[in-house]
Amino acid sequence: MAALTLTAARTEVPDFSTVHVTEEDSGEGLLADLEDLHTKPLWAQMKRINPPLPNPTAVPYIWRYEQIRPHLLRAGKVVTEKEAERRVLMLTNPTRDAPFTTDTIFAGLQLVMPNETAPAHRHTAFAMRFIIEGQGGFTAVHGQRIKMERGDVILTPSWNWHDHGKDGSGPMIWLDGLDIPSFFHFPVHFVEHYQEARYPAKDVNSYSSPIVFPWARMQEKLDAAEKDWVSISYLDRCGNEVSKTLGASAERLEAGTSSLITRETASIIYHVIEGSGYTEINGEKFHWKMSDTFCIPSWYRYQHFADDGVTVYLYRYDDKPMLKALGFYRLEGEDVES
Q1: Rounded distance, CA 63 to CA 84, Å?
Q2: What does residue 17 show for φ and ψ, rounded to 5 degrees?
Q3: Is the peptide bond between 99 and the residue preceding it cis, with omega within 30 degrees of 0?
Q4: Beta strands in 115-207 (DSSP E)
Q5: pLDDT digits 0-9 by tens, 100-151
Q6: Rounded-to-5 percentages of helix, strand, coil across the chain
Q7: Has this prediction a pTM greater than 0.85?
């Protein structure tokens, strides 16, 4: 075989002496010329792109259930199941448009009325549902029909066929949690509709299904902990987070006590299962009671306080699994390199 000869490419050194700069030349003129080339100088935006602290766009906010519920029920009368497909009131952050409850997480209150069907579809987004009120409701996820009970958490993994329905009387209402805002950065989310209103499914026991976390079981774990404040994560049977993007947990706070002061890069949605109290977020008090929902954006310092005479239970979901997977999660007081 003939020897391979490599010829070094000739490298020409730019002659900067040919760059013409006049006394009238200015930074403004340079920026204008760069604009025509679709080029921008980093030095002019260094602080914006590399801030000294996390700078979320979303702000803390609380959605009061007693104020929203009448409008949700009103929607049940004036918006048909066919018109809506999913009859949801999106909890939209005051500084953002839908679907942003925080910068990375979606929350919405969904309603199904008696004898209705929210038709089967599947989507890229992962969803988890916390059941707020009602009886006789069910969700069917990829062939498993699951009875809805207050306080239960039911998962809808990515790309699983699912539909919802309601037997009996009265409304069925739950809190939807999805990772939809993330798809504004990763434009790969889409939905496929099943050819029938319901995907074929059979009834399953909530206590045996891997996608259901019954409240009775979680409350038993919380009450067994000998602490004034305790937080327990919802984990799958292998001890992993329920998804790669969203995680969830439940907390118990004894009457008249408080949680730890916390500051983290996770964005958080809290829902009040039982009790009343307030959360101090960056020095501002947000008072809440049963069925209220509130958000804490990234890097806001917060602490929960339970009112006297009542035990508080909170449901929480956040984007911590996604942040940890990307190496983005930070907790104030810890200095851990990814």
Answers
A1: 22
A2: -70, -15
A3: yes
A4: 117-123, 127-133, 137-141, 144-147, 153-156, 162-166, 172-178, 191-193, 202-203
A5: 999 999 999 999 999 999 999 999 999 999 999 999 999 999 999 999 999 9
A6: 20, 35, 50
A7: yes
